[in-house]
Amino acid sequence: MAATNIGLLTKHSPNRPDTALNQASINPRSLKPLGNLVLSPQDAYSARATSLGKLSILSDELLLLIFSELTPPDLHHCQAVSRYFFAWCAGLDALWKPGFISKNQERLCGWKGSWRSTYILKFFKSPKNQDVDHSHLPTDLIQTPNVFSDVLFQPILCVSHSINSIIRRRTGPRKPHSNIDKITIEEPSTFQLPNKPTILKGLIEEWPAYSRSSSHCWTLESLTKRYPNLEFRAESTLTTLADYREYHDNCLLDESPIYLFDSQFVEKSSIKRGLGEDFFVPRIFEQDLFSCLGIKDLTTIIGPARSGSTWHIDPNGTSAWNAVITGRKYWICFPPHTTPPGVIVNEDESEVESPLSIPEWFLNYYNFAKETYGWFAKDPETRGLMLEGICEAGETFYVPSGWWHLVINLEPSIAVTQNFVSDNELNSVLHFMKYKPDQLSGFKFNVTELTGDSDSDCNPTLSDKPRSSIFDKFLAQLIHSQKVSEKTLCETLDSVEQLEYQRNQNRSRMNLHHQNGGDDNHQVRKRKNQPVCQPESFTDSSMWHEIKKSKNAIGVDPTNQSEPDADNDHSRSHALGNDYGNQNVDPQGFKFGFEFE
User: With contact defined as beta carbons under 8 Å apart, do 75 and 69 qualify?
Assistant: First the structure.
């Protein structure tokens, strides 16, 4: 990775205040990327070995694995060992997130600006200040400017990374490039949905939730006033709107902000006037064959800027619509036959690996994706496969079945979304149900409600493998409800078998190519010949070798260092073992108010 300086982040951006205070809040520890070590004083390189001791022989990737195994109490003890230990324990805020969620019984509440601060202020109360409600920690003022690490600096890059600046590139600040069609719906009864992602206008103007003249217009503030104590699902947590608003407005340091995503918000808010009365399903999406199973699958989504959903295909072969009530959402889509760069899918598509955060994907893969699959790609076979566009407030994004998509909020946003099955998706949904039953999700119904079976061993289930398959139940309900004619259903089932036969043929050809040492398609050949599509190692050993060459006068032996500070012997022994107890810490001393936490 090229040398990067946090000072570069102070360049003016219309979406981020250009103040020193803001830059300090992005990088409160004053961490630096590894490349900056080249131009630093000679003693800066020795600081890593001096501060980490025997652990300094390990790469930063291995250190990340080690520190990721520590619990918050372990991190709290280890942060007192040395400056580098403090940088690892306090600089990687995400290490504290799973511990807080688990210990707080999966509730998101009491947010204090970072996962570390929230955990410490809630669960580590100082004996001297039991009755004092701190709003910050004494250690918040500690900086580690002589710590150089790309692994530690990457979250800072992700937090400060401006998606807005990327999408303005090549087209100027006022007209970001988009190759996703925007269509105004004038006659919903005659409109035919296209077979590619599309932004639709004119569908939600009459929603009370969207109308600015309505007393029921949705904003996070207005929803919090209506339902301050009602709990909603926010990823792996439950939270009230009041607690979530506190997090939503103060999550600057969170690399992957949590977004509220609740499919039961209509039922939960049904007391008095419910949220379900503030909107209606647009006419062009009214046909949903899942309704015969009692499934509505309407979901509200609330999230701050930078929150969103990383690469995925919508479940069960469904299509989806996403209506933006407030804010702006940036979408990138790839067709079903093209896996996005940086995404790895196993053979049966049951497992998907992708970068942990959306900014991480943009930092490492966006340029390659744009050059290879964008509107101006050199190869005509891949040109235009990558679709991107901005869905504004009042517009609705349509995602056809099977399309890969990533979405990120460019500003705080509220939206309503639904996965649905119309006649167009019935083929893919039935195929998914029959041939990928272990990958089905979202079916929560009582078996007896659909079969009429009252046997005592037929209990309500959330499993995707009840006594009769969901595929059989769906077919039975389609016939019973007469939503699809028997003739159409028979033709669809024939096409399902033809589709599976074709897929088996394709798999056989691919396996034969692999056995013969061949490549299955031109995209694989391209990716094998394009090293840029792989993310750079954030602690590349070659980078360390170059730095060592430039610092060859230092001659540091990482196994023979001394750091005088006897006060930290206990903490150091706890972290590294008793054989390290006689080592000493930084010559400058490292003792900054840990007794107050």
Answer: no
What torsion, rounded to 10 degrees, do the Cα atoms 220, 225, 229, 231 define? -30
Alpha-carbon distance of 379 to 338, in angstroms, equals 14
Token digits of residue 139: 């250690």
Residue 560 belongs to what domain range?
A: 6-164+539-596
Furthest CA-CA distance within the chain: 84
Q: What is the pLDDT of residues 301-316, one digit of tens each?
A: 999 999 999 999 999 9
Domain count, the chain: 3
Q: What is the chain's Cα-based Rg?
A: 27
Taking each helix axis as running N to C, give the angle between helix 358-373 and helix 150-160, from 0 to 180 degrees, rounded to the nearest 10: 80
| Same domain for 257 and 335 | yes
Instruction: State the sign of the Cα–Cα–Cα–Cα dihedral 563, 564, 570, 573.
Output: positive
Cα separation, 463 vs 194, whole angstroms: 34
Q: Could you tell me what percentage of the chain is helix, strand and coil, using 3-state DSSP and rounding each to the nearest 5?
A: 40, 15, 45
Q: What SS3 class is residue 471? A: helix
Tokens representing 507? 């798999």
Global confidence as pTM: 0.78
Q: What are residue 388's phi and psi, to 5 degrees?
A: -145, 145
CA end-to-end span of the chain: 36
CATH classification of the domain holding 381: 2.60.120.650
36-67 pLDDT tens trace = 999 888 888 889 999 999 999 999 999 999 99
Three-state DSSP class for residue 232: strand
For residue 345, the cross-strand partners are 352
Calpha distance 338→355 (Å, rounded): 17
Is 141 in the same domain as 56? Answer: yes
Phi, psi of 539 (to 5 degrees): -135, 60
- Report d(CA 43, CA 48) in Å as an integer: 10
Q: Which of 95, 96, 82 is nearest to 147 (CA)?
A: 82
